[in-house]
Amino acid sequence: MAATSSSSSYAVAVVLICLLAADGSCGCPGPTPAPTPIPAPTLTPPPAPASPSPVPVTPPPAPVTPSPGSGSGSGSTNGSSGGWLDARATWYGAPDGAGPDDNGGACGFKNVNLPPFNAMTSCGNEPLFKDGKGCGSCYQIRCVGKAHPACSGVPETVIITDMNYYPVARYHFDLSGTAFGAMAKDGRNDELRHAGIIDMQFKRVPCQYPGLSVTFHVEKGSNPNYLAILVEYGNGDGDVAQVDLMDGGEPTGAWRPMRHSWGSIWRLDTRRPLRGPFSLRVTNGSGRSLVADQVIPADWQADAVYSSDVQFDD
């Protein structure tokens, strides 16, 4: 009887773990430690006859996840006709919001509820977020009637601004309430949102920021020995693969590589105090670079925004 009771308790524990994992699959919470697995109870076998030991089952290797493409061409995705790939979509935050309560996210972008983001934002799981180097990438998304009767099938464009830590599919877009509802037929936005999770399709597309140039936000806490910069509004790829800096105190005029800090934020730590003006060289995921010459002035300040006069070609 003791063994039966222990087995029943273990089974209930496993069911509870599965339910909790399923419940946490939506939304874009910050990084949290992985839950400690509940060990299986040790059972004392009956004295005789001895039962053969169960054969351990070796799980199959995890499938290799194809990249949804880097570069601004929609044909850079693999597999589906027309460049479309299958994914699943959930949503989080307010039904008509931009996702996070602070209108930010794990990429470091600010005010994503306002233009040019316009709340058309999404978390991406790791093949989309790419440890932050997928931040700023643009994707067309759509859902069709077979996924839900309220789906319009009309493509909408979203920008990766956040990270999804609980994927429910190989590719998982945890959309803002606004972006999720935008895939619905007219007047059926709430009906689609009530589905909670749907099958969808996506493909990489060029980002377009009409009238805007590549912009740099000097992050709070920056000083002459620590400079952290958020890069945003790049046409084309939209993402950032590398940032290099040249400062006014560098006698050789050499470029110094910045380190990827998190999201779309790049940093430089130095013992020699940095002196403005600063020039920045930005390289996107396709390997294309542009130089914003002396974009940050000598009298720069932390928590300030500096717009360049350069932009990636569409």
From TrEMBL:
Residues 104-212 form the Expansin-like EG45 domain. Residues 37-66 have a biased composition (Pro residues). Residues 225-308 form the Expansin-like CBD domain. It is found in: Secreted. Keywords: Secreted, Signal. PROSITE patterns: EXPANSIN_CBD (PS50843), EXPANSIN_EG45 (PS50842). Residues 37-81 are annotated as: Disordered. GO terms for cellular component: extracellular region. InterPro entries: Expan_Lol_pI, Expansin/allergen_DPBB_dom, Expansin_CBD, Expansin_CBD_sf, LolPI, RlpA-like_DPBB, RlpA-like_sf. Gene3D superfamilies: Expansin, cellulose-binding-like domain, RlpA-like domain. Its main location: secreted. Residues 1-27 form the signal peptide. It holds the Pfam family DPBB_1. SMART domains: DPBB_1. Residues 70-81 have a biased composition (Gly residues). Belongs to the expansin family. Expansin B subfamily. This is Uncharacterized protein. It comes from Triticum aestivum. The lineage of its organism: Eukaryota, Viridiplantae, Streptophyta, Embryophyta, Tracheophyta.
